[in-house]
Amino acid sequence: MKVYALLLAGALALWGSLPLSAQGIEGQAVTLNTSDGWALSAVYKAPKDNGPVVILLPDLGKDKTAFTKFSASLARAGYGYVALDLRGHGQSINQGEYTTFAREGLDNEFNKMPRDVDAAVSFLQKKGVSAQDIVLLGCGLGANVAAKSVTFTPEIGSLGLISPTANTRDVLAIPAMRLYQGNVLIAASADDKKTFLEASVIRNVAYLTAENAGKEGTITFLTAYDLSSHEMLDKYLIPSVLQWLAVPARPEIKPDIVPETETEVAAPGVLVVGPSDTEEALIPSVLE
Q: Which sign does the torsion angle of CA 222, 227, 229, 231 carry?
């Protein structure tokens, strides 16, 4: 029995000494402390040549290892990252697990997750990474948390939302899009009409904000097929997201020039209505 115990202890010690890449995701294991007492497990990998760093926020019920494939692609492309276990997830459970959190309420633990992001941002700033070189990228719940976080840190350079929704565990995505003026990438699966519709509304609100701020071209919208969240990112979107990280702001698309002699003629009995900038007009009619 003593021999077995010694072997087990030795195996655990060896496991703890293995590089983190052997446990799923490559990088330096770090602990980030939030302002309200959570000790968050994270993995940090520095960028090459002082490039951008992506803070990776997993979906509900997922942990940082859900970004194993994507983080490897980031590293190959020279980008740094902080892959985070949000409070109550993975190894970040010193104050409880997410299954015990209240599902509703604007002050529930899910709505306090922007403090997790703030801890990651503070960690990077101590490493000398400027806010403009930080990218928040989340999947599902992580996307909503990322969106809400830029309400408090609007200086963040870019925001990536994979499968965001209007409301996940009462974490709302749309209010932040009325304020944030940085580069935004939104991706949604066309197979799930409800989620796609909500992501499209988020995109349109973000677009109007950018347009009103004179920053056309800073909103990118990607679609995929039957998958969502981390699965959609891994299977369909990695090359596109890497391209967006390299060139997050697209050039303004100029409208075609219509000859002055051409006039638009409405069919008899058809009322021609111009586009509206009100939010009631933001829902894509193609999904009705």
A: negative
